[in-house]
Amino acid sequence: MVLMLAVNFAYMLLFAPQQEPVADLSYSRFKAELARDRVASVRMSGERVTGNFRDAVEIPADEGMAPVAYLRFQTVLPPVDDPELLPLLEKNGVELEAQASEKPTFWASLLISLLPWVLIIGVWVFVLKRMRESNGPGGGLFGQFRRSGAKLYSQQLSRVTFNDVAGLAEAKQELGEIIAYLRDPRHFSRLGGKVPRGILLVGPPGTGKTLLARAVAGEAEVPFFTISASQFIEMFVGVGASRVRDLFENAKKSAPAIIFIDELDAVGRSRGAGLGGGNDEREQTLNQLLSELDGFEPHQEVIVLAATNRPDVLDTALLRPGRFDRQVVVERPDWRDRLEILKVHARKVKLAEDVDLTPLAKGTPGMVGADLEAVMNEAALIAGREQAEAIGNEHLDKAKDRHLLGLERKLYLSDEEKRITAIHEAGHALVAKCLPGSDPIHKVTIIPRGQALGVTLQLPADDRYHYRYGYLTDRLAISLGGRAAEKLIFGEYSTGAQSDLKQVTDLAEKMVCQWGMSERLGPVSLERGVEHPFLGRKLATETTFSEETARLIDKEIEALSRQAERRAENLLEWNRPVLEQLAERLLVEEVLDEGALTEFFAAANLRLDEGGSAEAKGQS
Ligand SMILES: Nc1ncnc2c1ncn2[C@@H]1O[C@H](COP(=O)(O)OP(=O)(O)OP(=O)(O)O)[C@@H](O)[C@H]1O
Ligand SMILES: [Zn+2]
Fold first, then answer.
1. I need a labelling partner for 112 at 20 to 30 A (CA). Which of 26, 31, 141, 544 fits?
2. What's the structural domain count of the chain?
3. Other CB atoms closer than 10 Å to residue 318's CB: what's the count?
4. pLDDT single digits (tens) 442-470
5. Is the pTM of this model over 0.90?
């Protein structure tokens, strides 16, 4: 870095280029132009030649680019003298000015003579910095520089505000309280507000957790200390714990302040998990972190934010009251939020007047803020390469495709997949709606999450401990509703129902083997077999039952599943227009919550299930 700057500077002083563009010619091209009598004047200095054309000459630029017209050119003389050159110049009456090699100016020579020193000092500073940041357990020679790797963003530097964070309305609202507290702690506590110490930001990578934490610091105008938990433990044993201590010490000194720990799961995994007794260094670091979280005095106004996308693997000790006892969910954006995010990043680039970001926002389900930012950057690069005045719709489109090709995990759905997913999820939801005894639908979405392309989420109205037969057969039908809808609309199945099928088989197996719900097998518990002969799965732990029973179990599981499938198919067929409308709505909105669904179904004229569960019971 230091090196490049210095050299560039010297270069600029030596050969300050004229404003006009200068064509870089090969020597032979130069001679060709000369022979064609297109050169007006030449100035030689050492081996460098600059000059003017008589009229503008078009020189092809890089492949695929329009040629550029130049008035000036430069070239370099070959190392061996060219006897043809002077006669050629004279013959065409080219104005010639020759000069001994240019002398560097005073400042340039000063700079050049200082260059080695600049380099040495630069390297030294760099090394010193590294050592300070990563000093070993003993501190060694540079022990006096011991410091955590946490970066301090002073008040002036953390300019990020909620304005820069698009969407995430719920998260912002929840964090608003923290900001109020940090701005005026005394006032806040006088009102009797109890402030959480630690807040866990939970969400997939790139959804803006770090950005949000920074914005909290920016809004509250307090210093921001940040470290990634993986940095705690990358060095030597013992460093992690001491870094944690230093980080908290520093933050307390500048209180009110915010500490942000990214990738908390890197240190926060449950202790003792994993083979071979776990990782001492990590556990030490985690223990230190826990004790720091407990060690705040009431007047120390430090809030600890942490981010993770795996809250499930965290050590429960981290989640106890007084530690990270509050979770703020940072979700993947829906298209409206994606539009807002695109607008935020569009502020930094120049968009053409006619650009509409809405299609881009709608066409990028599954993308998170980081992706959208990358798309916007890519579009700016593409526009720049094409020497466009501003970013146009076509650049955005290209950038989107390019980014998608680069996405390793397939989070993005093609239009085709989106349609299939919408029909599939609408199928689940519609079947559930037509079975009055089933749980209310909390949410339907076609935003991909983890492995699932879409989700239909039902929440039980209250906690259930006992399940009626009818409730269970309803569940089977709902689970098969997605697949049945695909078949009805597209005439074929896709692979999207894999986990649905597993759910169905598991549940049906329990009904038959554990809950005695099969007429043919009777009121028996069949939890005795070892390996299920056909399903290849363990049914239970001990002994075996006869082969005949095993076959019967399979038959019964199949019968339950088929009945459920028929019910789902019937319901969907009866209500096919509603199914298609619902899928259409999903394609547009991506997420439908309980309110929207209730509203939608209220307007629909549904034909409900007609005592289907009774019929199913009779048939078995
Ligand atoms: N809601 C948003 N509004 C505006 N920009 C966003 C948003 N979400 C993400 N971004 C952009 O994406 C970048 C990356 O986001 P950030 O680092 O905050 O994600 P993260 O959730 O912390 O990811 P990770 O878990 O990988 O650390 C941000 O710097 C920002 O430019
Ligand atoms: Zn499904």
1. 26
2. 4
3. 24
4. 788 887 755 566 777 776 555 455 788 99
5. no
